[in-house]
Amino acid sequence: MSYKSIIVNLAIDAPPAPIVKVGVELAERFGACLIGLAAADVPPLVATGQGMVYEGEIMQIERTEIEKRLAELRAEFERLVPASIFSEWGQAVCSPTRFLSVSARAADLIVTGQAGDNVFRAVDVGSLTLGAGRPVLVAATNVEHVLAKTVLVAWKDTREARRAMADALPFLAKASEVVIATIDTERDESIRDSLADVAVFLEHHGIKARTELIAGEADGDRLLTFARSIHADLIVSGAYGHSRLREWAFGGVTRTLIEESGINRFMSY
């Protein structure tokens, strides 16, 4: 298994070079086609105390500015991608999350930077992960290489975690060290059994991994602390083992990982 088609998302308000360099390095590592995508949308009508504000000229100016910026991003993408890599480009004036989700049908992996607050100009990583049907690699802030030398697999015996581990096999196969860890909240022997089964699964793919039980409550901060203690540069996890609404209201591992910016994260749903 390998990634033969990789999407790299260029955020309209972020410098493109770091994320493009991440995409280029991954395309070279896996022998993949690299698809550069960028999108942003014009905000809809705004409701005020006086009613709906509709200013067609202003909206057209915003659209023109977006199109100009998309053209700049395309030029930068084409400048940074070497001729040795087969590449494509796509852009749209629409929701970046929706554009990426639709375009995901043509890719094995989506690579993006951090989420932004403005959903019209930045991707919503949570919605993208839920809707794309493809794994999403969220690069740490301003990194230019996702080396994935030490990979932490955040294990929980759920469909999402199984999917993530299978999707991440190309990274795991090339890693120097793979650690499968789970947070043991109940001291249940079945947890140890599931870790052992996962290690055997990876061994069948030629991947040696060690297992770890992390004591304490199941939360994202504890997982990140452990990741830093082993110097992991990539965390693999399933997304939204609980409902997204519950995570939004009460917090959860996925929400914590999305908000983290110092470690690369690989998520599947």
Strand arrangement within the widest β-sheet reads 5-2-1-6-7-12-11-8-9-10
* Major β-sheet annotation: 10 strands, mixed
Structural class: alpha/beta
Using the alpha-carbon principal axes, give the shape: globular
- Count of helices? 10
Number of E-type strands: 12
Cα distance spanning the termini: 19 Å
Radius of gyration: 20 Å
Q: Give the rounded overall mean pLDDT.
A: 91
Overview of the molecule:
- The protein has 269 residues and is an alpha/beta fold.
- The chain has ten helices and twelve strands.
- A ten-stranded mixed sheet has the order 5-2-1-6-7-12-11-8-9-10, sandwiched between helices. The chain has a two-stranded antiparallel sheet with strand order 3-4.
- The longest helix has 25 residues, at 56-80.
- The protein is globular.
Give a topology summary.
Blueprint: E1 5-9, H1 17-30, E2 33-40, E3 46-48, E4 51-53, H2 56-80, E5 87-93, H3 96-103, E6 109-112, H4 125-132, E7 136-138, E8 150-154, H5 159-167, H6 169-174, E9 177-184, H7 189-204, E10 209-215, H8 220-229, E11 234-238, H9 244-250, H10 253-259, E12 264-268
Parallel strand pairs: 1-2, 1-6, 2-5, 6-7, 8-9, 8-11, 9-10, 11-12
Antiparallel strand pairs: 3-4, 7-12
Helix pairs in contact: 3-4, 8-10
Task: Summarize, please.
The chain has 269 residues and is α/β, with parallel strands linked by helices. It is built from 10 helices and 12 strands. Strands 5-2-1-6-7-12-11-8-9-10 form a 10-stranded mixed beta sheet, with helices on both faces. The chain has a two-stranded antiparallel ribbon with strand order 3-4.
